[in-house]
Amino acid sequence: MLPTKRWRLTAAADQQAVDALLHDRCPLVVAKLLAQRGITSPEQASAFFRPGHEQLHDPFLMKDMQVAVERIERALGDGERMMVYGDYDVDGTTAVALTYSFLKKFTGDVQFYIPDRYAEGYGISFKGIDRAEQDGVTLIIALDCGIKSIDKVEYAAKKGIDFIICDHHLPGDELPAAVAVLDPKRSDCPYPCKELSGCGIGFKLMQALALRNELPWTDLEPLLDLVAVSTACDIVPVTGENRVLAHLGLKRINTDPRPGFKAMLRMANVKRALNITDLVFLIGPRINAAGRGGTRGHGRGAVAGPRRTERRTERFAHRQEQLAPARIGQGHHAAGDGTHQPATRCG
Ligand SMILES: [Mn+2]
């Protein structure tokens, strides 16, 4: 039996807000739609139609951001070896690609680790920490996972390895004893956007690092394609800061895609401009296929890397294509039957 649709009607727009918007020569229907979305002044309406990076929140509003940035700077200054550790799904993989590629600009002493979906499972693994120890790593930045890894963080501490956790999952009663725990869902975190993707948190950490070091916005802008893909695929609400990130990231993908995305789109024979749904059903499954196929290097191989690796990423994308078709087909089906429910999972 087909699932029954349940319509949830939004309350009628506030007349005062509609009048204020109409005053600014906004058409009635648009004024009503804006007011229903909580946009009640001409200034807010103007910002809504022109999303820009100046609308992003200050990353230092996030609890523990200061201490996280200081710890990374100490590692960079002292030549410590760092490991960027992420989950194997789209959100985790894009978070690793983003953080690893940005840190790589400043140090050669950084490596990444994505656990094997089948042998290690979700989240931080003892195996990953053992690997860090073998490689002389003293700081692990965990992305899209770790908020409940109390025992793993303790295990690492005994080996002299510090953790910075960047997660967007709901914390338990106790937080891990990491140097910094970045998670807007912490009850004591005042950060205004509670629904960032895991990759979005990684981006905020890199944005904070860039701000502290007075790096220009143009250094961060190329990372936004990854944030847009994670925001779309992790099914976080595309409102507020997420909407700005998604808008800027889509613009990036449609004008200057990184080699991995370019190769995937060529393989998929896509020649038009992408929208947010395309990120979910064209890009997402191709990155996920890497985690499921047990391919060493995982999706990161397809999303990171400088321009010269385009041929390599194309070969990688070709392999993914052989792994992915069935799932990509399922994705399209799910899109069509109306069961694609937002905010029901947080992978
Ligand atoms: Mn996630």
Question: What this model shows, in words?
Answer:
This protein is α/β, with parallel strands linked by helices. It folds into 2 domains: 25-52, no CATH class; 59-336, inorganic pyrophosphatase (n-terminal core) (Alpha-Beta Complex), CATH 3.90.1640.30. It is built from 16 helices and 5 strands. Helix 10 crosses helix 13 and helix 13 packs antiparallel against helix 16 (325-336). Residues 324-347 have low confidence and may be disordered. Residues 91, 144, 168, 197-198, 234, 346-347 line the site of manganese (II) ion.
Question: Which helices and strands appear, and what pairs or packs with what?
Answer:
Blueprint: H1 15-22, H2 28-36, H3 42-49, H4 65-78, E1 81-86, H5 90-104, E2 110-113, H6 126-134, E3 137-143, H7 150-158, E4 162-166, E5 180-182, H8 198-212, H9 217-220, H10 224-233, H11 240-255, H12 259-267, H13 276-293, H14 300-303, H15 310-323, H16 325-336
Parallel strand pairs: 1-2, 1-3, 3-4, 4-5
Bound molecules: manganese (II) ion.
